[in-house]
Structures are given as structure tokens and as C-alpha cells.
Amino acid sequence: MSSSETRRPNHALLRRDVQRRNVLRLIGLGTVAALAGACQVRPLYAPGPAGTVREPLDEIAIEAPASRIEQVITNELTRAMSGAAVPAYRLTMTVRSTTSTVGVAAITANATARSVTVSTSFQLLDAATNAPVFTGTSSAIAAFETGLQRFTNERAERDAEDRAARQVAQELRARLTAFLASRT
């Protein structure tokens, strides 16, 4: 090839490549738009039929707590609710707390670290029929250190129970909210 014979790009081929890429882009965008249009996702706190935003948990009445840890969970859940005049659901819970030793001092053989596990089994009942509509379990673990003073150890254990109970309440709130939002 001489210097006077330079290769020129074939503009027809380049135009065809550009057109092909544009067609593929349009097909891709159309596919994404069709998939997004078919999706049934809606915001959790979307305005209701009356135009107001409703918290799904407002439809739940919680049974009176039977223990201190149930009270912590109940308090955390009721903070998220404004309460309905006539609740559509009733929440019952059974809470269990266990403490186990995690670490032991080598010299004294005393427990130095412990953990508290708070387990909750719950039932969401239809208020009108008393039939269960959603059941489940939730648990959380919180660790605490122990020392030589009895009161300090008791207080640390109680704080760990409260932390674990708050974690359980947060999980319950999320699960109940998602369940109720999926029913509407």
C-alpha cells in the first residue's frame, strides 16, 4: 500500500453499527421499562385511600405483658404505633430469656463474660375471628461482662436483657409491618 492509497473507513458499515447499537439500546430500555411496569412494589408508607399516610402497625393491639422483658418489647412496639380505635389484629407473645457463660477466668474459674438470649414466639391474631394470621419467632443475643460485685453483675445482666429485647422488638416491628403491608 502506498502513502497515496490510504484506507478510508466505510461509512455505510459504521452507520449500520451505530444503528444496530441504538436498536439494541432501545430494546434494552423497553425491556427494563416493561419489567419495572410489571413490578408490584409500592412504598411502605404510601398514602392510603383517604390520602393520609398510615402506619400498618396502627391496626394491632398488643396483649398486656407478663414479664419485665415483655414490657420492654411492648414499649418499643407501642412507640411505633398511634393506635387504632378498633384494632383489626391482636398480638400475643411468649418471651423467654436465658443466660449463658461465655468466658471464664483461668485463675479464679469465675465467669468473666456472659450472654443473654431473648427469644420470642409471637402470633398475630385476627381480632374478629381470633384466628392466627401470622406466626413466627425472633431472638437476639446481647453480651455483658461480670465482675466481683453482685449488684454490678445484676445490673449488667438487666441491661443486656433490655438490649436484646429492643433488638427483638425492632425485628418484630419490621416483620409485622412487612406482613401487613403485603396484605393491603
> Any idea of the CATH topology of the largest domain?
Double Stranded RNA Binding Domain
Shape: flat
Summarize model confidence as the mean pLDDT: 81
Q: How much β-strand is present in the residues?
A: 25-35%
Largest sheet: spatial strand order: 1-2-3-4
How much helical structure, as a percent, in the residues?
A: 40-55%
* Low-confidence runs of at least 5 consecutive residues: none
In total, the number of strands is 4
The biggest sheet amounts to: 4 strands, mixed
Domain count: the total is 2
Task: Look at the structure and name the CATH superfamily of the largest domain.
Answer: Lipoprotein like domain
Provide the gyration radius in Å: 30 Å
Order of helices and strands: HEHEEEH
CATH class of the largest domain: Alpha Beta
N/C terminus separation: 74 Å
What is the multimeric organization of the chains shown? single chain
Class from helix and strand fractions: alpha+beta
Number of H/I helices: 3
CATH architecture descriptor of the largest domain: 2-Layer Sandwich
Explain what this protein looks like in three dimensions:
The chain is an alpha+beta fold. The chain has 2 domains: 33 residues; 128 residues, Lipoprotein like domain (Double Stranded RNA Binding Domain, 2-Layer Sandwich), CATH 3.30.160. The chain has 3 helices and 4 strands; from the N terminus they run αβαβββα. The chain has a 4-stranded mixed beta sheet with strand order 1-2-3-4. α2 links the parallel β1 and β2. α2 packs across α3. It is flat and about 95 Å long. It starts with 10 loop residues before the first helix and ends with a helix. The model has no long low-confidence stretch (mean pLDDT 81).
